[in-house]
Design goal:
Its EC number is 2.3.1.-. The protein is of the alpha+beta class and about 160 residues long. It has a single domain (about 5-155), classed as Gcn5-related N-acetyltransferase (GNAT) (Aminopeptidase, 3-Layer(aba) Sandwich). The protein contains five helices and seven strands, in the order βααββαβαβαββ. It has helices at about 10-30, 35, 70-75, 95-110, 125-130; strands spanning about 5-10, 45-50, 60-65, 80-90, 115-120, 135-145, 145-155. The protein has a seven-stranded mixed β-sheet, with helices on both faces. Strand 6 and strand 7 form a beta hairpin.
């Protein structure tokens, strides 16, 4: 049995715990401005949260945009969701939390009838996503001063 569980973050407490992980990873560690880390999509996205068994402490989070919210991120591709804001706390890295979060978001995409998932990967994380079946496409671009590539996985 793993030392964590991943669940959909439906309660306000779960969402706040996920936002705290994002703040720790993106704002504090990576220097992403807080005013661009959180956006209007947070209100309608599917959020997932990884928590430690026993004490329930938050270890990681991610979100899925779908429908009209995903269109801007996926180039308007029909039936494609957008996975994003995947963050794992420094202490939880290497435990399989990131893989479990991605798979939970893919399950959420399938449950909503999506055929594929896109994401915008920081270039240092390309290998992680490639191991999970994602393929890069397009040109490298900057987001919050960090190099990224678009990636897609057919579900």
């Amino acid at each position: 049995m793993s030392e964590f569980v991943v669940r959909e973050a439906v309660s306000e407490a779960d969402r706040e715990a996920g936002f705290a992980v994002r703040r720790e990873v993106f704002v504090v560690e990576q220097g992403v401005p807080q005013d661009i880390e959180y956006d209007a999509y947070d209100a309608t996205a599917v959020h997932v949260l990884a928590v430690r068994r026993g004490d329930g402490s938050a270890l990681g989070t991610g979100r899925l945009l779908y429908g009209a919210d995903a269109a801007g991120k996926t180039g308007g591709a029909e039936g494609v969701g957008s996975l994003g804001r995947l963050a794992v706390t420094r202490a939880a890295r290497g435990l399989g939390v990131g893989v479990a979060l991605v798979r939970a978001l893919e399950d959420a995409a399938r449950a909503r009838g999506l055929a594929a998932v896109d994401l915008q990967a920081q270039t240092h994380a390309l290998g992680f996503y490639e191991r999970l079946g994602y393929e890069a496409y397009g040109e490298e671009f900057q987001d919050a001063g960090i190099p990224h590539l678009a990636m897609r996985r057919v579900l």
